[in-house]
């Protein structure tokens, strides 16, 4: 699963997982799973987390940003002859 920056932003604001979960209206185990990359949040929860953490969903979940790797694009490495 992709990495996210929820824990980083939560700690910056001095919030515990329980406090953030309460503010985001989600269960603490759900938030823990999201922070550890074991679960992806629903789009609405991404928005709420970003609002509470004073950032954007794209900043919290950068690897999910479609602009980072557009659908259908392929990364090719040409190392032959080097």
Your description of this structure?
- The structure is a single chain.
- The chain is mainly alpha-helical and 82 residues long.
- It has a domain at 6-60: lambda repressor-like DNA-binding domains (434 Repressor (Amino-terminal Domain)), CATH 1.10.260.40.
- Helices cover 45% and strands 0% of the residues.
- It is built from five helices and no strands.
- The chain has helices at residues 6-12, 17-24, 28-35, 43-52, 57-60.
- Helix 2 (17-24) crosses helix 3 (28-35).
- The termini are far apart.
Describe how the helices and strands are arranged.
Blueprint: H1 6-12, H2 17-24, H3 28-35, H4 43-52, H5 57-60
Helix pairs in contact: 2-3
Key descriptive features of the protein:
434 Repressor (Amino-terminal Domain); single chain; 5 helices; mainly alpha; globular; disordered C terminus
Tell me which CATH architecture of the domain at 6-60 applies here.
Orthogonal Bundle
Q: Helix amount, in percent?
A: 40-55%
- Look at the structure and give the CATH class of the domain at 6-60: Mainly Alpha
Shape: globular
Q: Quick gist of this model?
A:
By secondary structure, this protein is mainly alpha-helical. The chain has helices at residues 6-12, 17-24, 28-35, 43-52, 57-60.
């Amino acid at each position: 699963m992709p990495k996210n920056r929820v824990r980083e932003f939560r700690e910056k604001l001095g919030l515990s997982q329980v406090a953030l979960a309460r503010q985001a209206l989600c269960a603490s185990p759900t938030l823990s799973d999201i922070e550890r990359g074991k679960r992806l949040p629903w789009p609405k929860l991404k928005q709420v987390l970003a609002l509470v953490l004073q950032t954007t969903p794209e900043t919290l979940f950068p690897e999910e940003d479609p602009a980072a790797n557009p659908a259908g694009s392929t990364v090719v490495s040409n190392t032959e002859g080097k």
